[in-house]
Design a protein that fits this description.
By secondary structure, the chain is an alpha/beta fold. It has 6 helices and 5 strands, in the order βαβααβαβααβ.
Length: 142
């Protein structure tokens, strides 16, 4: 049986605690899991992107995503755990659920809260929406 754990990371303390959970649990797993770190960047509004080149927008998303993933990558590297990292653009909860389905993930490990906006607080957290959108088990780390 293949194990593939998806860890959404936005650079927040709860998302880094999810990475620490993976650092503690992965070595003792029955089957060594494949670890995928994912950062989801919000798409920029069209009133910005129509005046900025696609390359500049792509560079912005990549740089922001790399910054958000940096500490998580460092933590996994320090523990000697192999991983892949992916930067996606879109609505966070849908992008996480879609990635998990499309890449045959077996588990999602994520923080209970992230760096969401005030609108996110009013509409419900990304974590709550991932739990509802995904058919996979979701481990939520406080």
């Amino acid at each position: 049986m293949k194990a593939h754990w998806l860890v959404p990371v936005d650079g927040s303390a709860p998302s880094l605690r999810a990475v620490e959970y993976v650092v503690r649990q992965a070595p003792s797993a029955t089957v060594t899991p494949t670890i995928s770190l994912v950062n989801v960047q919000a798409a920029l509004p069209s009133d910005i992107t129509r005046f900025v080149s696609k390359k500049n927008v792509d560079d912005y998303h990549r740089e922001s995503g790399e910054a958000a993933l940096a500490q998580a990558c460092a933590n996994l590297e320090a523990a000697g755990i192999a991983y892949s990292k992916h930067i996606l653009v879109g609505e966070a909860s849908q992008a996480v659920a879609d990635y998990a389905r499309e890449h045959a993930c077996t588990l999602i490990v994520m923080g209970s809260r992230g760096l969401g906006t005030v609108a996110g607080i009013l509409l419900g957290s990304v974590t709550t929406r991932v739990v509802h959108l995904s058919e996979l088990p979701v481990v939520v780390i406080k």
